[in-house]
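Exercise 7b. Backbone tokens:
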């Protein structure tokens, strides 16, 4: 039996809202079938079946009221992969193995979707998640970047503090949480470093950290790139004085997002930067300094953008939907 390849799979988690709904609505309007897969519900509420033999293999997944074969999937939006939500009744000695096996099984499911069009594929996402690689490539294509030190040596951190004249912030190379929600206590935000913080910095030997010069801000920019399209939201530094280091911190009132247009030269570098990573989507953070310089901070290849669509009425969801159905589908809009 020939199955119609008319499904766009939206990979996310059960707590996701707004952006996932906007993209699903946009896809429906364009005549394709969006199906949401909440990865935290596997394996307890999502069933996966994979059959292999000498001539072929096929995979199906069942969740809620739907059952689909990977042969039906024309495109995949990689929004989020979440930790499995396991029952409290599961003995703790089995929990780690169950999580590991569940992740490995999902990996095989992603592999079965290799013929689908991804925004974006896991390989370029994982490649782009390396923050030091981001800084290297940003510098190579011509972006201004902050002076940066990564070290587990306390003395080096103290020397760098003097080098940047005491204007220093710290961050991690990897998030300790998947979420920017206020109920998350495991996400370390960019923080100002004071001289007394470095008096007892020997604990760095347990965990290296990133130290950067603190860049003066006129505005902080969230730049969303989707398949050659660029959307920008700006926050004035004086409006969110409490968040001068990191506007993403829970409970911070950031004020209203404003429209902003990037100079053509920055857009050209942005497109070159995304091309180096092979990404169709990315959420990037920049600082616009009081002197008018654009400073690249980082890219999140699955970053947030809902606040820009909501506050600035930017059609990001619709453009993501276009990017999903633009290849290997035969659709024309």
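Sequence design result:
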């Amino acid at each position: 039996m020939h199955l119609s390849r008319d499904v766009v799979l939206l990979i996310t988690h059960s707590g996701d809202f707004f952006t996932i709904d906007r993209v699903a609505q946009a896809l429906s309007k364009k005549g394709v079938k969006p199906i949401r897969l909440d990865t935290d519900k596997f394996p307890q509420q999502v069933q996966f079946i994979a059959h292999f033999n000498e001539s072929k293999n096929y995979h199906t997944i069942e969740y809620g009221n739907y059952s689909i074969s990977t042969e039906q999937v024309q495109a995949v939006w990689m929004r989020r992969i979440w930790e499995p939500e396991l029952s409290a009744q599961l003995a703790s000695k089995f929990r780690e193995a169950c999580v590991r096996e569940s992740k490995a099984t999902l990996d095989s499911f992603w592999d079965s979707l290799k013929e689908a069009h991804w925004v974006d594929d896991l390989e370029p996402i994982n490649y782009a998640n390396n923050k030091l690689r981001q800084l290297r490539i940003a510098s190579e294509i011509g972006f201004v970047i902050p002076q940066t030190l990564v070290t587990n040596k306390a003395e080096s951190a103290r020397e760098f503090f003097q080098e940047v004249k005491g204007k220093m912030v710290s961050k991690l190379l990897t998030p300790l949480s998947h979420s920017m929600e206020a109920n998350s206590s495991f996400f370390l935000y960019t923080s100002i470093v004071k001289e007394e913080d470095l008096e007892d910095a020997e604990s760095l030997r347990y965990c290296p950290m990133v130290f950067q010069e603190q860049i003066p801000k006129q505005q902080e920019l969230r730049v969303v790139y989707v398949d050659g399209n660029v959307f920008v939201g700006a926050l004035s530094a004086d409006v969110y004085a409490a968040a001068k280091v990191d506007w993403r911190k829970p409970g911070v009132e950031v004020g209203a997002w404003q429209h902003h247009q990037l100079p053509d030269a920055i857009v050209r570098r942005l497109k070159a930067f995304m091309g180096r990573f092979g990404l169709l989507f990315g959420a990037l953070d920049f600082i616009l300094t009081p002197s008018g310089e654009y400073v690249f901070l980082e890219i999140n290849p699955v970053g947030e953008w809902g606040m820009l669509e909501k506050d600035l009425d930017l059609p990001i969801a619709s453009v993501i939907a276009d990017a999903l159905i633009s290849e290997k589908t035969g659709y024309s809009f």
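Instructor comment: The chain has eight helices and 16 strands. The two ends are 29 Å apart (CA to CA).
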